[in-house]
Amino acid sequence: MKQVIGVTYRKYAQSHLVQTQEAYPIGTQVLIKESKAIYLGEVNEPARMMADKEVPKQLPKCLRRAKAKDIQAATANDYAAKASYAKVQALLQSNQLTVKLQEIIFPLDRQFVLITFASDKRVDFRNLLKDLAAHFRMRIELQQINSRAQARISGGLGPCGRPLCCSSFLGEFPKLSIKMAKNQNLSLSSGKSSGYCGHLLCCLQYEDQFYQESKAKFPDFGQTVLTKDGQAIVTGIDIFNDVVAVRFFDHYPIVHYALEEVTISG
Question: Of the candidates 46, 147, 174, 250, which lies 20 to 30 Å from 69 by C-alpha distance?
């Protein structure tokens, strides 16, 4: 068993699991050790025990409670990052790179600078890297993320009016498919099935099993069925009220039947 806490750091809105020896109160500022650097973070989830097999590999560790000098150093680093933003933007333009500068982060010890760009296409950063090294005069680490990761970092409101799942509580991005949207009768062309990032809504996964199980009880669209009034073709279904809409061969008005009143024609 290992003790973990939830911590926000590196400007990400979501909580990161961090291994800790001490249970810190929510709101405590702490130092977080990743594989390459140390960052200032803030505890936002209380300590709990996790089985070893459930703990993610290479889990960051909480070193200790932050001191005043640590907070001052982090504040100075944030100021330096903001001051560098315009220069990095200018270097992007001079190198004719059409990517979005997402963030500039200095670890607490300032051994390097991490610069994150958002783009869904492959980008050649070689010339830019030389210009950045000449400007910062320290080791440069570039990170390219896609639009989904960009939405996670930036945050925002989804079509439901609530904070984005990915930036508030969602861990790994789920595996999504167009079939999920079709199962829920969402139009792919209207944009209602897409989220802030432009990709399929992550929340499609929450009710997908319900829609699959519910639709399994119904005949398919266009299938011939038997009703008390004769054979008809299925034109629609209502899984919430267990209703089937059909059209008879000899006339076109749509007629609705309860699901138990309809049987699949042999």
Answer: 46
- Distance, in Å, from the CA atom of 213 to the CA atom of 52, rounded to the nearest integer, reads 35
- Which residues, 6+ apart, have CB-to-CB distance to 48 below 8 Å? 3, 4, 5
CA gap 212, 180 in Å, rounded: 9
Tokens matching residue 12: 């990400």
Q: How far apart are CA 9 and CA 7, in angstroms?
A: 6
H helices present in 95-231, as ranges: 126-136, 147-154, 165-168, 178-183, 208-215
Q: What angle do CA 20, 21, 23 make, to 5 degrees?
A: 80
Pairing of strands 139-145, 112-118: parallel
The predicted model scores a pTM of 0.63
214 in Cβ contact with 239 (< 8 Å) = yes
Confidence of residue 12 (pLDDT cuts 50, 70, 90): low
Q: How many CB atoms lie within 10 A of CB 2?
A: 15
User: Cβ-count burial of 11 within 10 angstroms (0-12 exposed, 13-18 middle, 19+ buried)?
Assistant: middle
Residue 257 contacts residue 249 (beta carbons within 8 Å): no
Q: Give per-residue pLDDT as tens, 192-207.
A: 787 777 778 888 888 8
Please give the Cα distance from 98 to 114 (Å, whole number).
19
